[in-house]
Write a structure and sequence with these properties.
about 180 residues, alpha/beta, GMP Synthetase, Chain A, domain 3, four-stranded mixed beta sheet, 9 strands, binds zinc ion
Length: about 180
Protein backbone atom coordinates (compact mmCIF):
# COMPACT_ATOMS: atom_id res chain seq x y z
CA UNK A 1 0.00 0.00 0.00
CA UNK A 2 1.50 3.21 -1.15
CA UNK A 3 -0.21 6.44 -0.24
CA UNK A 4 0.24 9.56 -2.31
CA UNK A 5 2.36 11.09 0.44
CA UNK A 6 5.06 8.47 0.02
CA UNK A 7 5.38 8.27 -3.77
CA UNK A 8 8.94 8.88 -4.96
CA UNK A 9 7.91 12.11 -6.72
CA UNK A 10 6.40 13.60 -3.59
CA UNK A 11 9.43 12.58 -1.56
CA UNK A 12 11.75 14.15 -4.12
CA UNK A 13 9.75 17.38 -4.05
CA UNK A 14 9.76 17.45 -0.24
CA UNK A 15 13.51 16.85 -0.21
CA UNK A 16 14.15 19.59 -2.75
CA UNK A 17 12.04 22.03 -0.71
CA UNK A 18 13.87 21.03 2.45
CA UNK A 19 17.30 21.42 0.79
CA UNK A 20 16.47 24.85 -0.59
CA UNK A 21 15.11 26.00 2.74
CA UNK A 22 18.21 24.69 4.56
CA UNK A 23 20.52 26.36 2.01
CA UNK A 24 18.78 29.71 2.49
CA UNK A 25 18.72 29.36 6.29
CA UNK A 26 22.46 28.65 6.37
CA UNK A 27 23.43 31.85 4.53
CA UNK A 28 25.91 33.65 6.78
CA UNK A 29 25.32 37.17 8.04
CA UNK A 30 27.66 39.37 5.94
CA UNK A 31 28.79 41.36 8.96
CA UNK A 32 29.19 38.50 11.42
CA UNK A 33 29.80 35.45 9.19
CA UNK A 34 29.95 33.01 12.12
CA UNK A 35 26.18 33.22 12.47
CA UNK A 36 23.54 32.46 9.87
CA UNK A 37 20.59 34.65 8.94
CA UNK A 38 18.40 32.08 10.69
CA UNK A 39 20.48 32.29 13.90
CA UNK A 40 20.20 36.05 13.69
CA UNK A 41 16.41 35.79 13.56
CA UNK A 42 16.03 37.83 10.38
CA UNK A 43 14.76 34.94 8.23
CA UNK A 44 10.99 35.00 8.77
CA UNK A 45 9.56 32.74 6.12
CA UNK A 46 10.54 30.56 3.16
CA UNK A 47 7.71 29.43 0.88
CA UNK A 48 8.69 27.15 -1.99
CA UNK A 49 6.47 26.54 -5.02
CA UNK A 50 7.92 23.43 -6.66
CA UNK A 51 5.62 23.64 -9.66
CA UNK A 52 6.49 27.23 -10.50
CA UNK A 53 10.11 26.77 -9.32
CA UNK A 54 9.86 29.90 -7.26
CA UNK A 55 10.64 30.68 -3.66
CA UNK A 56 9.23 33.56 -1.65
CA UNK A 57 11.48 34.63 1.17
CA UNK A 58 10.53 37.06 3.91
CA UNK A 59 13.31 38.76 5.84
CA UNK A 60 13.21 41.45 8.48
CA UNK A 61 15.96 44.08 8.42
CA UNK A 62 18.24 44.41 11.42
CA UNK A 63 19.64 47.86 12.01
CA UNK A 64 17.84 50.37 9.81
CA UNK A 65 19.72 51.08 6.65
CA UNK A 66 22.11 48.23 7.31
CA UNK A 67 23.82 47.69 3.94
CA UNK A 68 24.06 44.01 4.81
CA UNK A 69 20.42 43.53 3.81
CA UNK A 70 21.24 44.04 0.12
CA UNK A 71 24.03 41.50 0.36
CA UNK A 72 21.68 39.02 2.06
CA UNK A 73 19.03 39.53 -0.63
CA UNK A 74 21.56 38.90 -3.40
CA UNK A 75 22.89 35.83 -1.61
CA UNK A 76 19.37 34.37 -1.30
CA UNK A 77 18.71 34.98 -5.02
CA UNK A 78 22.04 33.36 -5.89
CA UNK A 79 21.42 30.27 -3.73
CA UNK A 80 17.95 29.84 -5.27
CA UNK A 81 19.20 30.34 -8.84
CA UNK A 82 21.90 27.69 -8.39
CA UNK A 83 19.16 25.20 -7.51
CA UNK A 84 16.96 26.28 -10.41
CA UNK A 85 14.53 28.51 -8.54
CA UNK A 86 13.62 32.16 -8.92
CA UNK A 87 13.64 33.92 -5.58
CA UNK A 88 11.45 36.80 -4.57
CA UNK A 89 12.74 38.46 -1.41
CA UNK A 90 10.35 40.62 0.57
CA UNK A 91 11.27 42.75 3.54
CA UNK A 92 9.07 42.92 6.60
CA UNK A 93 9.43 46.09 8.64
CA UNK A 94 6.89 45.39 11.35
CA UNK A 95 7.20 43.99 13.93
CA UNK A 96 10.72 45.33 14.01
CA UNK A 97 13.64 43.01 14.48
CA UNK A 98 15.30 43.07 17.88
CA UNK A 99 18.34 41.20 19.15
CA UNK A 100 15.92 39.11 21.26
CA UNK A 101 15.17 37.19 18.06
CA UNK A 102 18.72 35.86 17.95
CA UNK A 103 18.73 32.14 18.69
CA UNK A 104 20.60 30.52 21.57
CA UNK A 105 22.79 28.82 18.96
CA UNK A 106 23.58 32.20 17.44
CA UNK A 107 24.57 33.59 20.85
CA UNK A 108 26.82 30.59 21.53
CA UNK A 109 28.49 30.97 18.14
CA UNK A 110 29.16 34.66 18.79
CA UNK A 111 30.70 33.88 22.18
CA UNK A 112 32.91 31.17 20.67
CA UNK A 113 34.04 33.68 18.08
CA UNK A 114 34.99 36.17 20.81
CA UNK A 115 32.04 38.52 20.37
CA UNK A 116 29.85 39.29 23.38
CA UNK A 117 26.26 38.39 22.41
CA UNK A 118 23.56 41.03 22.87
CA UNK A 119 21.85 41.12 26.27
CA UNK A 120 18.23 39.98 26.44
CA UNK A 121 16.13 43.12 26.45
CA UNK A 122 13.08 41.27 27.66
CA UNK A 123 14.49 39.31 30.54
CA UNK A 124 15.41 40.33 34.03
CA UNK A 125 18.61 38.32 33.97
CA UNK A 126 22.15 39.25 34.77
CA UNK A 127 22.94 41.09 31.56
CA UNK A 128 20.60 44.00 32.11
CA UNK A 129 19.62 45.41 35.48
CA UNK A 130 16.28 47.21 35.30
CA UNK A 131 15.08 49.82 37.71
CA UNK A 132 11.43 50.39 38.72
CA UNK A 133 9.12 51.92 36.16
CA UNK A 134 9.79 55.57 35.55
CA UNK A 135 13.54 55.28 35.83
CA UNK A 136 14.99 54.63 32.42
CA UNK A 137 18.54 54.06 33.63
CA UNK A 138 19.84 50.59 33.01
CA UNK A 139 23.23 49.26 33.95
CA UNK A 140 24.51 46.94 31.31
CA UNK A 141 26.88 44.28 32.41
CA UNK A 142 28.65 42.82 29.42
CA UNK A 143 30.54 39.60 30.01
CA UNK A 144 33.98 39.17 28.45
CA UNK A 145 33.65 36.34 25.87
CA UNK A 146 37.29 35.40 26.43
CA UNK A 147 37.56 35.00 30.22
CA UNK A 148 33.97 35.42 31.44
CA UNK A 149 34.67 38.47 33.62
CA UNK A 150 31.88 41.04 33.98
CA UNK A 151 34.44 43.77 34.64
CA UNK A 152 34.44 45.24 31.14
CA UNK A 153 34.22 48.74 29.77
CA UNK A 154 33.15 50.32 26.52
CA UNK A 155 35.96 51.86 24.50
CA UNK A 156 33.93 52.87 21.47
CA UNK A 157 30.22 52.79 20.67
CA UNK A 158 31.14 51.63 17.18
CA UNK A 159 33.39 48.61 16.70
CA UNK A 160 34.34 46.96 13.42
CA UNK A 161 30.78 47.52 12.16
CA UNK A 162 27.89 49.77 13.24
CA UNK A 163 26.18 46.74 14.76
CA UNK A 164 28.96 46.27 17.27
CA UNK A 165 30.58 48.24 20.07
CA UNK A 166 34.21 47.89 21.05
CA UNK A 167 34.91 46.98 24.68
CA UNK A 168 37.87 46.00 26.77
CA UNK A 169 38.02 43.50 29.60
CA UNK A 170 39.62 44.88 32.77
CA UNK A 171 40.44 41.35 33.89
CA UNK A 172 42.29 39.84 30.90
CA UNK A 173 42.93 43.25 29.26
CA UNK A 174 41.73 41.98 25.87
CA UNK A 175 39.55 44.12 23.64
CA UNK A 176 36.45 42.49 22.18
CA UNK A 177 33.39 43.32 20.10
CA UNK A 178 29.95 43.43 21.65
CA UNK A 179 26.93 42.77 19.42
CA UNK A 180 24.76 45.68 20.51
CA UNK A 181 21.29 44.85 21.72
CA UNK A 182 18.40 46.76 20.20
ZN1 LIG B 1 38.43 38.97 29.79
Amino acid sequence: MVTSATTPTTVAVATATFDLRAAIASIPDPEVPVITIEDLGILCEVVVDEQARTVNVLITPTYSGCPAMDAIRQHIEHVARRRGYTASVQTRLSPAWTTDLMSATGRDKLREFGIAPPGQRSDQGSDVVRYPVGVSLTIRRVTCPLCGSVDTQEISRFGSTACKALRRCNECREPFDEFKSI
